[in-house]
Design a protein that fits this description.
The protein contains one helix and ten strands, in the order E-E-H-E-E-E-E-E-E-E-E. By secondary structure, it is α+β, with helices and mostly antiparallel strands.
Amino acid sequence: MIATETPERTEGKYSVLSVYSVAKCYTLYTNIKEKNIRSERKKAMRKGVILGVGIAVIFVSLIAIFFFTIEGAPIVKVKVEVVTDADGKPQFKVIEVEQSEVHPLKAPRGHSAAAFPSVDAVAFLNLRMSCYWTSQEYQGEGTYEFVIGFLKGVKPKEGDMIRVYVKVCDGSGKTLASGYKDMMWE
């Protein structure tokens, strides 16, 4: 018997065959409905995953563009060799100065605050204070290396003069030795 046909009545009751057919049809109907719901869910999940991956790719691309197109921050690398003379006073044997660039997030920000005694370094751009002071604790003879960053918004141009001034201070902040080295920014 097909479910669309009217079921036979027997004394006010449906026949067993018609009840079975209706139950079978209902089961088929619910199975089809569940499959449709599942397939719709799968489609929606696929669309969501594709949308999420698309948004992630766009986000990562924007970040990559930002980091690859940003200009480097100018820095001055300084290497100083300190020796002591016969009287035990510090002297500068060598002062090496080199220009470089780093990612702006890695550039030095702010003045360093090493305790006295110290070896201090600062750079002047065209004889004007345009950089952060940097310092290290004085440990006696040896090599001291500094990275000097420029103040925010200051960027040397080709041909600008950079003067790096280095000094050794005692425990009270008095200058024991000083020196400088000039370079032209390329």
